[in-house]
Specification:
Length: about 220
């Protein structure tokens, strides 16, 4: 799964001369949290966020309502934005897990997607959550089963053999280390066109593995 497949293409862009009031309006009307600031040719100059557009309490305390209006009216995005050299970006060819790791490590909510120095998209926390749902087969109906297996060569192949033998269709797969249980992995599978009872019968016979959870998933 790649950034280019789940990013928001053609994101809303603003110019550095855009006023803070106009940027606030754009963010509110489009229910977004980030606006790339670009120059000619869609070259990235900076990034403005909801937080950057929020007045600091000490500023509010020193101004009356008319002064606040004039203050906001005179501010431009250029004065508030995070400068391009401080903005973390990513290429559309990078993987989603790399994007997730960068956002987690940097504690940021978005990455402008840059190709040939041009803004071609935005990848956000919401896009990553959407990708996770797609990977796990949502929102299609099916049976979600979690199998626990030893971290040994051939264990996942053993599980796949059961799927092949019974001609079961898989819509989503995810594997991760078992929580608080070193030496084991949990495999989550979204299986279609079958029942929970059938899955229990088939997977209950996979030697050395255990059904941890099974439920209808829509």
């Amino acid at each position: 799964m790649f950034v280019k497949d789940f990013m928001t293409r053609h994101p809303i862009l603003v110019q550095p001369e855009t006023t803070a009031v106009e940027a606030q309006r754009i963010i509110a009307e489009n229910n977004i949290r980030h606006l790339p600031v670009t120059g000619s040719g869609k070259r990235l100059l900076g990034l403005v966020t909801r937080e950057r557009l929020a007045l600091k309490p000490d500023t509010l305390n020193s101004l009356n309502v008319w002064e606040i209006t004039r203050y906001l009216g005179s501010l431009t995005v250029k004065e508030l934005m995070i400068k391009a050299e401080q903005v973390v970006t990513i290429s559309p060819e990078r993987t989603l897990e790399r994007a997730a790791r960068i956002m987690t490590e940097r504690k940021i909510g978005c990455l402008p997607v840059i190709e040939d120095n041009v803004v071609v998209g935005m990848i956000t926390e919401i896009d990553l959550l959407n990708a996770y749902q797609v990977m796990m087969g949502l929102p299609e109906a099916g049976i979600r089963v979690t199998m626990r297996m030893p971290n040994m060569p051939g264990e996942f192949a053993r599980l796949m053999a059961a799927l092949v033998e019974h001609k079961l269709g898989v819509m989503g797969v995810g594997i991760y280390p078992s929580p608080r249980l070193p030496g084991f992995y949990d495999a989550v599978l979204k299986i279609v066109s079958t029942s929970s009872d059938e899955i229990k019968r088939i997977f209950g016979n996979v030697e050395g593995q255990e059904i941890i959870d099974i439920r209808d998933a829509v």
